[in-house]
Amino acid sequence: MSGHLLQLKNVTRTFGGITAVNDVSLHVDPGEIVSVIGPNGAGKTTLFNLTSGVMPVSSGRILINGTDLSKVPPHQFVTHGIGRTFQNLALFKHGTVVENLLVGRHWRMKTSVLDAVLHFGRARREEIEARERVEEIIEFLEIEAIRDHVVGTLSYGQQKRVELGRALATDPKILLLDEIVAGMNQEETEDIARFILDIRAELGIAILLIEHDMHLVMDISDRVHALNFGTTLTEGRPEEVRSHPKVIEAYLGARAARGGGSGAVAAAGSGGL
């Protein structure tokens, strides 16, 4: 069996006559941070939707720890260790921070209806365990001051941190982060970068990241996978990908590629290409 934690093998997704993801293969090993980059429309979010079970592949295979996820119902992807945040926030805006984080623990609840109604035995133990784990995440993400706030009253950056916390509450083996710093200021972006590194170092969780902020990608990634029009351009270490002619062309055009414009890729990415 492969030592890869997550593996995509020749994954393709078509919508009618349009191929959004075309024969893409990539892998993430335990403890790695891997970023997927590419201009708008490159197929990045579709690739995440396939990996997290939001939609099925048209062909190819997705495996986690050797288990073929094509045989797993979408709602059970979380039980195999896949956690995810979304580009557009998917929080319960009328609930508190604690309540939103507890949602991430729901799949672990095995309580019967009777136990839940009477609130004893297993139901009580599970609730105590869930709340203890949520408090650990609140401390880890440094959001103690807003733990009882209604999510809809929080700033955008705070809500992004809550969504990250909810994904952590699922106890993932790998965390899929879809443009986690989009719309954030520099200070908020630096905080999230620190948390991503801590998630890997302290919690042992691998990261697969979609991101337009090339400065972030180049700073924290072990490897980078570049897409354009649903097809892999190249894959490798950040410095290798940044200077690759096809990546430069995808971001800046053919003239920049011929002129060796690798230094501008980061600037173009941070500008929201």
TrEMBL record:
Signal peptide: none annotated. Keywords: ATP-binding, Nucleotide-binding, Transport. The lineage of its organism: Bacteria, Pseudomonadati, Pseudomonadota, Alphaproteobacteria, Rhodobacterales. Residues 6-254 form the ABC transporter domain. This is ABC transporter ATP-binding protein. It holds the Pfam family BCA_ABC_TP_C. One of its GO terms (cellular component) is plasma membrane. One of its GO terms (molecular function) is ATP hydrolysis activity. Gene3D superfamilies: P-loop containing nucleotide triphosphate hydrolases.
